[in-house]
Amino acid sequence: MSAPLFATASPLAVNVLDAQSLLAAFGVLGVGIVLFAETGLLVGFFLPGDSLLFTAGLLCTGSSAATGVHLSLAPLLLAAVAGTLAGSQCGYLIGRKAGGTLLARSRSARLHEGAQRAEALLERYGVGKAIVLARFVPVVRTVLNPIAGALGVPARSFTVWQVTGGLLWTVGLTLGGYALGSSIPNVDRYLLPIVALIVAVSLLPLAAELYRSRRAAAAQKNGAGG
């Protein structure tokens, strides 16, 4: 039996860092809300966007009945896309109006590191490619939107690229989870290691960029010393 669009559960029982807990509590509408917060509001940088989409896609298949949650694919895709695209546009508008003020007031070291990575992506790849790539990097996808607004990226360019990246990210991860759940019986038994793998893979671009920046800094230091 399919779960309602908005499942009810005790708020005290919800772990906002756990995708399965969020889905069991809030269902499809919760996906849209969480993705809006993660991509549009700086306070949502810690939310599990990648694992949420993949797990939600997996729970659209009948092979995950043991979890007690079954979602419908079409409403899920609509909620995910709507939350992601609206959130990104909201973050951009916040950046246009408030500049870097909100980010500067944050005391989160992780958030500031994400901002540095976002600026590095913009400088390295240009606006279009950076906005698309940022979708697949946790924290960076949260801070790049207001940064793009603060830097005066044209609204039309930002919208075109954020829609492109948003569709690739949401639809790709959701259908990836759906395909895996459809092809592997009792896949819910392996849900935790699968989610851990998704999180690890999503962090690879950030780790690679950090490695490159450190190598570049070391090379520059050695060159100056020479």
Q: What coarse outline follows from CA principal-axis ratios?
A: globular
Q: How many alpha or pi helices?
A: 9
Q: Write down the secondary-structure element order.
A: HHHHHHHHH
- Would you count the extended β strands for me? 0
Structural class: mainly alpha
- Overall pLDDT level: 79
The radius of gyration is: 18 Å
Strand content: under 5%
The low-confidence parts are: 1-12
Helix content: over 70%
Distance between the termini: 69 Å
Biggest sheet features: none
Please specify the SSE layout and strand pairing.
Elements: H1 19-40, H2 49-58, H3 73-98, H4 101-105, H5 109-125, H6 127-134, H7 140-150, H8 155-183, H9 191-225
Helix pairs in contact: 1-2, 1-3, 2-8, 2-9, 3-7, 3-8, 5-6, 5-7, 6-7, 6-8
Describe this structure in words.
43% of the residues are buried. Helix 1 packs across helix 2, helix 2 runs antiparallel to helix 9 and helix 3 crosses helix 7. The N terminus is likely disordered. The radius of gyration is 18 Å and the shape is globular. It has nine helices and no strands. Helices cover 72% and strands 0% of the residues. It has 226 residues and is mostly helical.
Task: Considering the chains and any ligands shown, give keywords for the structure.
226 residues, mainly alpha, 9 helices, 72% helix, disordered N terminus
Question: What's the gist of this structure?
Answer:
The protein is mostly helical and about 230 residues long.
